[in-house]
Amino acid sequence: MHKPDGEPVRTGRNLPVAIASGVALGALVLLSIYPFSAGFVAITSAATLICLRELNRGLGARGGRLALWPLALGGVAMQVCAYFGGAQWLVGAAALTAIAALSWRLRDGADGYVRDAGANLLVLVYVPFLLGTWQLLIATPGDGQERLIAFIIVTISSDIGGYFAGILMGRHKMAPVISPNKTWEGFAGSVLACMLAGALTVSLMLDGAVWAGAVLGVAVVVAATVGDLIESLVKRDLGVKDMGRFMPGHGGLLDRVDSLLIAGPVAWVVLTLLVP
């Protein structure tokens, strides 16, 4: 594959393996939500534990200490509460988990307490709380499963559109200090892909208006791009290239779901407001 000027495209990863890993993950998600959507609680609970492990290893290398047991138990409880109790239960479980994590760290004294408390609250919000918004999507009465699938399709379209537009036409760097490979041309490709995917999924799967799907696409592509940049900055601060080796061709699980994490609550808000 070559760019329009003849320069060969360098993808930086084993693309066939990366695609195969992504397809396998998508198949696992589909199998978990049909015919019983409650099965998806197990998926986000497992994702919570895996991402906590990845972040704990990265933070540990920098001297940080997570309250791993409270975060793990509370994080799983947040997934259950979000599915069966909705947003109020999710917020309540998150608040109790935050209290438990801050209290757990008391036994190690004052040295580094603020640093570790900040890290615990960051991880609490970044992983289990944001994953819990996926449960809010799938728990929507009537078409929750379709809402979750629409959200995933639109967000993945951002990655695909941005990836190919970026490697073929990318010239102008978006955030060279944070993520040198991101370009404005790639972002434009993400916007177009997301708007198309949003219009199709919302109109065909949710019986919503095409314009609502386009709005969903724009909102998700902005959130997904911010999600990529946030995780890139986390990795730079921790001094790692990948968060782990969970998925061949993708790195750690957090490397794969970074954009989905930030896009989840955005998609839930947009769909709740525009596709009742």
Average pLDDT confidence is: 86
Low-confidence runs of at least 5 consecutive residues: 8-13
Classify the secondary structure makeup into a structural class.
mainly alpha
Shape call: globular
Q: N- to C-terminal separation?
A: 44 Å
Number of helices: 9
What sequence of helices (H) and strands (E) makes up the elements?
HHHHHHEEHHH
Helix content: over 70%
Strand content: under 5%
Secondary structure tally: strands: 2
Task: Provide the gyration radius in Å.
Answer: 19 Å
Biggest sheet statistics: 2 strands, antiparallel
Strand order of the largest sheet: 1-2
Outline of this structure?
The chain is mostly helical and 276 residues long. It has helices at 15-33, 40-61, 68-85, 87-104, 113-138, 144-169, 184-205, 210-238, 253-274, and strands spanning 173-175, 179-183.
Walk me through what this model shows:
The chain has nine helices and two strands; from the N terminus they run ααααααββααα. With 276 residues, the protein is mainly alpha-helical. It has a two-stranded antiparallel ribbon with strand order 1-2. A hairpin with a 3-residue loop joins strand 1 and strand 2. The radius of gyration is 19 Å and the shape is globular.
Keywords for this entry:
two-stranded antiparallel sheet, mainly alpha, globular, 3% strand, 276 residues
Q: In terms of topology, how is this protein built?
A:
Blueprint: H1 15-33, H2 40-61, H3 68-85, H4 87-104, H5 113-138, H6 144-169, E1 173-175, E2 179-183, H7 184-205, H8 210-238, H9 253-274
Antiparallel strand pairs: 1-2
Helix pairs in contact: 2-3, 2-5, 3-4, 3-5, 4-5, 5-6, 5-9, 6-7, 6-8, 6-9, 7-8, 8-9
